[in-house]
Amino acid sequence: MNKHITTGWNTEWILGLALFIFLYFATSAPILAVELDAELDWARQVELGTPVRGVVQRVMVKPGQQVKQGEVLLQLDQRGFKSQVAGLKAQLEHFRAELAEAKREQDRSMELYDRTVLSDHELQIAKNNFIAAKAKYLKGQADLVQAELDLEYSSLRAPFDAMIIARQAEVGQVVVPDLKPIVLFVVVDANHMHANARLTSKQLAKVAIDMGVTVNIDDNTFNGRVFNIRRAAEADNQLGEKYFLLNVEFPMKSQKLYAGQAAVINLP
């Protein structure tokens, strides 16, 4: 009788332990991350040109080269630009002297007018001459600023840390951007990449803008964030399910990555 009771108690204990272990692992096991097949794209792609006319004198970079922000990529012949700046500086000095003389003449005329030595008409002429001299001086300042900008624009610089993916400039090329901008370089962000993947409506509920995700490329893992979510341009499937495009931005390490490479986005 005692043996039967002991055996029954052992069976119930074993079944209870098994149930406990099952429930523990069922509730504490981590939810597997969602993996999305993705494709890399450039984070920023910019076409560069210059707004001034000129002849290409030097080209400093080639496709595939990485450059720092502010680095000179191309330089036009600067002799004409420098000559224009020098001439306008000299002209501005002349205008400054004329303005000073007109100011002295206006002050002298007002003093004589107060002493009733000068007529209203003569005083007004002095004031008009001062106004004209000041306008000429201000116009000279504006012309000089524009000439200095043109000189600055004659050197095409990288707008950010970039990689050159296309070069359409050669030494001796004449640049005439009057009718439409002339693309001389195409550059992309050298420090960030995008990974794009397609989402279904159900998967859309798992993501949000700025949410942290990881991107796997070959044997490398990158920490990124959801940069954008938008409706995919492709048609919905036959079941009427809608598709969305997930755009993830991540900083690159020392590896060189290129648009079109395969990747995997891991959603937490």
Structure description:
This protein has 268 residues and is of the alpha+beta class. It folds into three domains: 1-30; 34-44 and 190-267, Efflux pump adaptor protein, beta barrel domain (Elongation Factor Tu (Ef-tu), domain 3); 79-153, Helix Hairpins, CATH 1.10.287. Helices cover 38% and strands 31% of the residues. The chain contains four helices and 14 strands. It has helices spanning 2-28, 79-114, 120-153, 201-204, and strands at residues 34-42, 45-48, 54-59, 66-67, 72-76, 155-157, 162-167, 174-175, 185-189, 192-200, 212-217, 220-231, 243-251, 262-267. It has a six-stranded antiparallel β-barrel. It has a four-stranded antiparallel β-sheet with strand order 2-9-7-4, with no helix packed on it. Helix 2 (79-114) packs antiparallel against helix 3. It starts with a helix and ends with a strand.
CATH topology of the largest domain: Elongation Factor Tu (Ef-tu), domain 3
Give the structural class: alpha+beta
**How big a fraction of the residues is strand?**
25-35%
The rough form would be described as elongated
How far do the termini sit from each other?
Answer: 56 Å
| Distinct helical segment count | 4
Q: Tally of extended strands? A: 14
What percentage of residues falls in helices of 4 or more residues?
25-40%
Count of distinct structural domains: 3
State the strand order across the main sheet: 1-10-13-12-11-14
Over all CA atoms, what is the radius of gyration? 36 Å
CATH class of the largest domain, anyone? Mainly Beta
Give the overall pLDDT as a whole number.
Answer: 87
